[in-house]
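Hi there. Long-time user, first ticket. I'm pasting a complex I've been working with (about 895 residues overall). I'd like to know whether the download I got is complete or cut off, because the file seemed smaller than I expected. Thanks.
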Amino acid sequence: MSTLRISSLQKSFDGNPVLHGIDLSVKAGSLVALLGPSGSGKTTLLRVLCGFERADAGTIEIDGRRVAGPELHLAAERRRIGYVPQEGALFPHLTVAENIVFGLPRAQRRARHRLAELLELVGLPESYAMRAPQQLSGGQQQRVALARALAPSPGLVMLDEPFSSLDAALRVETREAVARALAAAGATAVLVTHDQAEALSLGDEVAVLWGGRLLQTAAPQALYQRPVTAALAAFIGESVLLPGHVVDARAQCVLGTLPVVDGAHHPDGPVDVMLRPEQIEVLPEAAPREGALDALVRDITFQGQDAALTLQLIDSETTVRARVPGYRTPRHGERVRLAVGGAVSVYPR
Amino acid sequence: MSEAITTAPATQAPTGRAPNPGARSRRSTPRALLAAALAGPLLVLLPLALTFRRALSFGFADAADLLFRPLVGELLVNTLTITVSATLAAAVLGTAVAWFVERTDVPGRRVFALLAAAPLAMPAFVTSYAWVSLSLDLQDFCGAFIVITSAYFPLVYLPVAAALRGLDPALEETARSLGCNRWSTFARVVLPQLRPALLGSMLLVALGVLSEFGAFQLLRFRTFTTEIYAEYRTSFDGGGASLLACVLIVLCLVCLAFEFRVRGRARYERVDRGTRRAAVRHALGRWRWPVAAGFVALNAATLGVPLGMIGYWLTQPGAAAITPADVSPELLFSTTFASLRLGLAAAVVTTLLALPLAYLLVRYPGRLATLLERTTFVAQGVPGLVIALAIVSLAVRALMPLYQGTTLLIVAYAILFLPLALVSVRAALLQAQQRLEETARALGLGWFETLRRVVLPLAGPGLGAAAAMVFIAVVTELNATLLLSPIGTHTLATQVWTDTSTLAFAAAAPYAALLTALSLAASGLLFTFAGKSALAAHSAAPPDGS
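Hi, the file is complete. Here it is re-exported in full:
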């Protein structure tokens, strides 16, 4: 269990800056999801942390011990950071057991040190020990890769998009197994992902990397409810963005006057109002609800468990997106009423 | 959580070719195609059968007398010593060069990468000419070892470098993160992955050394090949040569069998998914320049000495050599013309011979096609000298009118280089996938229009590459040319040979220079147009590569 502290880390490739001054601290034993669109520099950051790439400036400290800094670049093999690469990258010439004990000293390798324990930790039966990696499914390969990284008991584990190559069903299952194993091992973990659902569900904290800068670091709920920019809001999840004004810490827009998250911090003035589609409640036309607005169903995307609706407000030309449970999907052109729940975020224009 | 695991299917890595649902493999193969495809493999088996038949004509006692001689023992020791030592040296050198070029920041690595492949275009007998003319002390084992190692290490370098490029960098990074330093990462992770490429190429080197004739003869190092040639010269169609040839063939076929096995077991291939990062290059630090100096020394030995000596003798008058002889411009012209003519004819014939078999392999894959393919690759295990001898013997006995004619020489070339052509032709036909052809037909094109507008544009470059590779191989070929070329026909290769044999080094220089220039230029063109893959195929023709 180690703490990780990164300050003003910079890295460029052939003169193109990829990381512009990253500051991040990770508490011992927590899991930070490093989230970003492709090309945001998240894999580069992970590779710099692991020691595969050399930082141009800034420092990296693990448990107070500096591993990278001015005139200092500790080689990857001396950082004691567990690394789980994309698609596992199991050594194809070794069995599962040999893969897992690979990073241990020779005597412990011979003795198959902790092998049974590690297999159990990642949720694989012991009979898998003698299999070749090619005989495992993608999710099982990922679990072996995690066991291999955990075998030398590193204080810190880095996972580079470990689930991206798995299909949807396997992904959820493997994700849960990995989270359990990491928690059981008590390792501090940094998980790189471009999948916001993965980041929100796995991370104790989510750090969003955007164009080589850390845009926001927050707990998953806070990040979802209060993203710092409108673009980030759209990246984290589906969002409805409407022009409006802040007046007395409340947002006025076509959906009415709505409470603002941390409203007291926002001065009056023109803003973009952001809310999540699931905050818009879709009611039958006859529903007696004060402040509800009339709207027409313009488009429906039925997805089984729920349906995404495009609704046009009667009083204006504005359209908004909303979600309803699948069994309550209205008909095309049907008249409905809208009510907004929860608070909205605002971004000054 | 365990039930989820037990129900998860343990997916077996796919082995062999996946049957193409659209392929016509279930439909019977057209007879005409089958007959045409059979021609090549049968031609390959012919010299083998002839040699064994000739050897069997001896009684057991006679054969034993001829084989269990001190001379044969000496030949065996010589042949195996040079084969094993040169193969090991080529393996170490080729792997080291590949690793430094692909995995470190050695200065000038791009140039070194190119130069490391260049010796492939230099025939070993030209290299030996250079070393012998430098000093006659370099004859025997020492010279043979230098010449053979520098001629054959690119055969290891190219596939190993390709394997290094193909290796998932994540494997090495993971090893580093697990505490392995540079050396133990190489020993525990990289080397095991290179094993198929390394072993396969080592066996190809061993095959090449076993079949090498010109270099050993010029360096006066006695092996099976030189002795077979000596027997042939003294007794012409005697059986002694064929008995020795049988021993040599057995050695070669053992190598070939191992080679087939290694390729069959090559299971380490990575399932290629998504994008690939470039591997991390190790910083050599203060070793950068010493390593670069090592590369310069290597290139001085493999390319500098041969090219330098040819250049030196070009500027010397004929009288400067041990045997004075002058060059006649007419002979220079006629030998060049003969080399070009034979090279072009053999390139066309061999490519055409490979075409039906390659088509069969691509469109009607199955046991029969694989059998024919493997039979063709047996030609790799039969030394050119043995093929030439068998054809001489056949001509003398049954085809007298063809004896000393160009036809049989072309046939010998076709047998020798059919495997080389087959690899490229097959790769070329794979470019023109059946579904593209079908799409063209569905768009209303007739078969001829489909051929002209779809198949040829796609497969054409590969067919050209195949022909070019055969051309290079024929121009630099010595054994078969020496034995089968018509009286009065001299090629560049035979002329280098004749003049070097008589120690007329200055006289040999123009031919050696032309031969090397022709081969290097053709290889350069091939490299430019067909890319590295062509050279890789040139160096390692896989019996069932995909």
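A couple of notes from our side: Residues 30-269+288-539 of chain B form a domain with the MetI-like fold fold (CATH 1.10.3720.10). The two ends of chain B are 40 Å apart (CA to CA).
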